[in-house]
């Protein structure tokens, strides 16, 4: 029922339940008072997320599948198994950790590490949160997501495509480090397969080619990453700007025109240079032609070279 036997009990107190799924189940149900809404911290299309604190252990985020009187819907089961399949294959500091899962008719849920600051989307929507996300922090958020995607695309065999990179699926820790979450529609690319699928993801982040082809590739994530980077720079979704880019022959946009005006302009030349590079990378990731978009490995390499040169 639980995974990650390699982690020591001192590092992960949740592991004490590895061999006793019934105890784990009972403790979570008890701590959440049978998943009372007062512990709910988020609602998605297929699940609710609860903040659950187990006595003597740490705080966890528990994602509970929605169910009906007929049981769990087929689509929800698919999302559940997708998430388990993806997260049991990967380990990266910028990808949220799955500690365990339970699949039962009454309650089916996944147990993750809890991210104290919630989603990047919520932080950017809040005046106070946006100001707390200063320019240096935003640079680190972008790098964290880039490293996670590069790992998934280039270091996992076979590669894993997230398919729903958006600000609501980037979670922030207490020190505002970025973690990629929600692998419910992730796809593991199978060799010698067409990897065709139905369109899925968050409107406003979907690669344009998905309107005429069902083939999922790394380039779909890269387009979504481009949208996300502009959103981090601007402090809001860059919908109108992207539309203008697709219909314009020029991709030259002054940096000052895309920076969140809730923050004071950056004064450090190092930060200015990093923000300018991120703007440039985001525009290349948003190319209408998938083959023209860079790989995530290339994106990370350029970010690292910029940091080294400063």
From TrEMBL:
Cellular component per GO? membrane
Q: What PROSITE patterns would the database entry show?
A: PROTEIN_KINASE_ATP (PS00107), PROTEIN_KINASE_DOM (PS50011), PROTEIN_KINASE_TYR (PS00109)
Q: Tell me one GO molecular function of this protein.
A: protein serine/threonine kinase activity
UniProt KW keywords: ATP-binding, Glycoprotein, Kinase, Leucine-rich repeat, Membrane, Nucleotide-binding, Phosphoprotein, Receptor, Repeat, Serine/threonine-protein kinase, Signal, Transferase, Transmembrane, Transmembrane helix
Q: How does it sit in the membrane?
A: Single-pass type I membrane protein
Say yes or no: keyword Ion transport present.
Answer: no
Q: Which domain of life is it from?
A: Eukaryota
* Residues that, per the record, bind ATP: 64
Q: What Pfam families would the database entry show?
A: Pkinase (PF00069)
Per UniProt, the enzyme's principal EC class comes to transferase
Question: Is Coiled coil given among the entry's keywords?
Answer: no
What EC numbers are recorded for this enzyme?
2.7.11.1
Location in the cell: Membrane
| Catalysed reactions, as listed in the record | L-seryl-[protein] + ATP = O-phospho-L-seryl-[protein] + ADP + H(+); L-threonyl-[protein] + ATP = O-phospho-L-threonyl-[protein] + ADP + H(+)
Domain Protein kinase intervals: 35-305
Q: Which PANTHER family match?
A: LEUCINE RICH REPEAT KINASE 2, MDIS1-INTERACTING RECEPTOR LIKE KINASE 2-LIKE
Identify this protein by name.
non-specific serine/threonine protein kinase
- Give the organism, scientific name: Lithocarpus litseifolius
């Amino acid at each position: 029922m639980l995974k990650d036997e390699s982690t020591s009990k001192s590092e992960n107190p949740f592991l004490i339940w590895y061999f006793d799924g019934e105890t784990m189940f009972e403790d979570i149900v008890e701590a959440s008072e049978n998943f009372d809404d007062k512990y709910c911290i988020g609602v998605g299309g297929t699940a609710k997320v609860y903040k659950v604190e187990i006595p003597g252990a740490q705080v966890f985020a528990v994602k509970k599948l929605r169910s009906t009187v007929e049981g769990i819907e087929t689509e929800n089961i698919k999302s559940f198994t997708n998430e388990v399949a993806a997260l049991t294959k990967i380990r990266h500091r910028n990808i949220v950790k799955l500690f365990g899962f339970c699949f039962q008719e009454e309650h089916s849920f996944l147990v993750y590490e809890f991210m104290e600051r919630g989603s990047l989307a919520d932080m950017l929507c809040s005046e106070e949160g946006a100001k707390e996300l200063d320019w240096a922090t935003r640079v680190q958020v972008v790098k964290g997501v880039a490293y996670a995607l590069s790992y998934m695309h280039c270091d996992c065999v076979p590669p894993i495509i997230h398919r729903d990179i958006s600000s609501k699926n980037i979670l922030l820790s207490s020190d505002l480090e970025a973690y990629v979450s929600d692998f419910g529609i992730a796809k593991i690319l199978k060799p010698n397969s067409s990897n065709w699928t139905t369109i899925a993801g968050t409107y406003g982040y979907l690669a344009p080619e998905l309107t005429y082809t069902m083939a999922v590739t790394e380039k779909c994530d890269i387009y979504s990453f481009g949208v996300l980077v502009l959103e981090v720079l601007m402090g809001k979704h860059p919908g109108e700007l992207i539309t203008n880019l697709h219909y314009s022959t020029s991709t030259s946009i002054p940096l000052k025109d895309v920076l969140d005006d809730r923050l004071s302009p950056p004064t450090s030349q190092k930060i200015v240079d990093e923000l300018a590079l991120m703007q440039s990378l985001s525009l290349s990731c948003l190319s209408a032609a998938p083959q023209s978009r860079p790989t995530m490995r290339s994106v990370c390499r350029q970010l690292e070279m910029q940091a080294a040169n400063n």
